[in-house]
Records
---
Amino acid sequence: MTEKDVLKLFKKEKAFLSGHFLLSSGLHSPHYMQCALVLQKPWIAEKLCRLLAKKCGRLKPQVVIGPALGGIVVSYEIGRALKVRSVFAERLPAGKAGVDEILTLRRGFSLHKNERVLVVEDVVTTGRSTGEVIELVRQSGAKPVGVASLVDRSGQTPAFPGGFFSLLKVDIQTYASQECPLCREGNTALVKPGSRTKKE
């Protein structure tokens, strides 16, 4: 399956959205990749994640981890494809982690010293969540060996340890709120489709 095929699939599943979106980073964008609409169909999720697993299987991870919520299904399906454990990190509820929410392992999940860990996401934009998961892995004494994402919309090549693998790379324009042409036009309502509270 080529990148064109993956993009065609996202459009078919109405997961490549057009409008006026507020991203978790606080930036505005005319497009949004809603991976949940693709991953809601298990047979598609399995196919895409097996393709992604083939790209990074040479890293020989012993466990796969992704951030909730977007990384849970991706972590599970890649773990299944590679026949390794799959876990996910969660943010502590607001008010229980100081000023900022932090990603942590809960539900009895743990990473072992020197365990080889593949960090996965549904989509990487700024790389903030990915970086937090990598730090969590390191603090656990485990070793991050690479990062994999269904969609790379970072607009650059992120400097992740072990390299970065994706099925689809898309260049989607983003704007600071004060520079957003969609806001100036005022014709399209601003929508926040993501699940994470914006960091001020």
---
Amino acid sequence: MSTTAEATLTDFLRDPKAVVDRLEHVDVVLHRRNAEDLHLSLESRSEAVADGVRFVARMLGAALSDAAVRGRLEASAEAIPWLSFLPTQRRQEFLAEFFRTAEAAAELGVMMPLAQLLREWQATAVIYADPELAAELRRPLAGDGERVAAPPAG
């Protein structure tokens, strides 16, 4: 069974009761032309998801204080294929930042910082995976201005 139903914004405007009735059973994604889709959900369902994410983030945070657990979590990061392009040091930085951000984002109930972190680290993995792109990004830029120190080697 699907956890979401789909409708258009026009459907919602024409017959809001039909769309709202669907919310008793599933969330509804409203598709809009030339704009981002909207996600409608019951507050109780949304709060349950947020509570679950907060709980998991707290459990992960507590588990990370155990070195053996931390090692197993780092090993399980292989489930994210693009992490293999990051050097070991960078992979460890990613995991530490990911767990800190996940815990903080869950506590606030705002997942955008976690999504942004994942996009940024994935972009970093792209650079490590493409030597030509890495070389292009390392070349000096023409123009005025102060010299910027190179980031630490990974």
